[in-house]
Amino acid sequence: MTWKQTLTVIALAAGLAGGPARAQTEQAAFLFTYDIDRGQQAAFEAGYAAHLDWHAAHHDALPWFGWSVTSGPRTGLFVDGTFGIPYAAMDTRPDPAGDGADMAARVLPYAKARAYSAYTLWPEPSTVRSLEDRRPTPELDAYDLSVAPGDVAAFEAALLASARAGKGRLGWTWYRLAGGGEVGSYLVLVPRRSWADLAGRPADLAGLIAAAHGPTPDASRAAALVRRVEVETWSYKPGLSRLP
Hints:
Layout: H1 3-18, H2 20-25, E1 28-36, H3 41-57, E2 65-71, E3 78-85, H4 96-106, E4 111-122, E5 139-147, H5 152-165, E6 173-179, E7 185-192, H6 205-213, H7 217-224, E8 226-236
Antiparallel strand pairs: 1-3, 1-4, 2-3, 2-8, 4-6, 5-7, 5-8, 6-7
C-alpha cells in the first residue's frame, strides 16, 4: 500500500468515527514523516520539490507544508502535512494513483516513509491557527501529548474550563488524533520565529496552559492527567512547501 492509499484509509476512518454532521464542520490535518537515507539529502529535496511541481501541474488545491525536525530524538526526519481542510477534500484530490506513483518515483528512492497520522483541529483551547491561515512561522515547537483513554473526558473538561477562564499570551494550536497513533493522543503546535522566543516560556505543561489561557486551577488539573509529553522543533522549509 502506498502512502497516498494509506492516507485515504485514515481519512475514511476519521470521517466514519466523527459521524456525518461532525465531519462536515471539522478541519483536518494529515501528517507524514520520512527518514532520509544517509547522504541523500540533496537528492531527496530535489525529488520532493519536483513532486510538488506534479501537484501544481495537476491543480491540487490542498496546501502542503514541509519541515525538518531540528531538535528532539527524531532530529533529521522530514515532516510534511496538509492543514485546514475538510476530510472530504482527501476524497476529491486530483489523480491519487498518479500522485502515489510520482511520489514513489521521485522521492521514495531517497527516503523511507515512517508514519502517517490524521488529526482534527480542536479549536476551543487553540489561541492561533497559523497553518489553517496558511501563515507558517520559521519554527514550530511540536508537543506530543497522551492521556489515558479513561481520563480523556476529565482532561478535556479541565482544559476547556481553563480556556474559558481567559486568555494569556502564548499562541498554540491543538489537534486531537483521529487515526494513526495511540488513542488519547494530542498534537500541540506552538509557532515561533527564533530561539529567542523561548526566553521566559514555561517548561512544564501546567505553566504552558497558564501562559496560553491564564492561571487557573483547571490548568493544573488538566496537566496532572497527561501521562506523557514530548517536544521537538520543526524548522519550516519554504522550498519544500506549496501553499496555493
